[in-house]
Here is the input.
Amino acid sequence: MKPVDQTKFGDPDGNCFAACLASLLECPIEDVPKFQSKPKIYWMDVYDNWLGQFGLGVFSTTTDPFLHAEWHMELIAGGNGPRGIPHTVLWKRGKMIHDPHPSRAGLIGEPTEYYIIVVRNVASAFSLMSWRMTEQREQDKRIAELEDSLNVIDKDRESYYAPVIAEKDRRIAELEHEAEVVVKEKEA
Here is the structure.
């Protein structure tokens, strides 16, 4: 899960649910459709169909299905938001783990609904995970290349400054020697 913040606010334009889905799927919020302005039955079907391309689906319940379970997973929790309109956040083990709104204020009281992302088609879901792993490997490779470039820059910097520092040290030693000679001459 990579936290994604919502980019639109208020009712009916807010995209907190889309931000929660983007967080769970680790994708840009722009890739997630936003349909909350339609009746709930409509947008839940749209999200369910959209998730179908990844072998996933969504269903909702009014109780936290993982609160007392042996294993836990992230899910989307909905309820009353502090701004007087419905709001959704990411939830795990009976606690909020991410509020996509910049205020991070969460929900007022306990969630009234939970949205669980489920696997419907293992092959499609595996394809999504495989794509994510490939993307992560490419990202790791880019980071390693950048680190290598920084190491080269550091080595170039060291090789550039080494003669300058050596010259400075030589000049300081020379001046200290001259100062010693002058002090000895004055003492004599």
About this structure: Residues 155 and 161 are 10 Å apart (CA to CA).
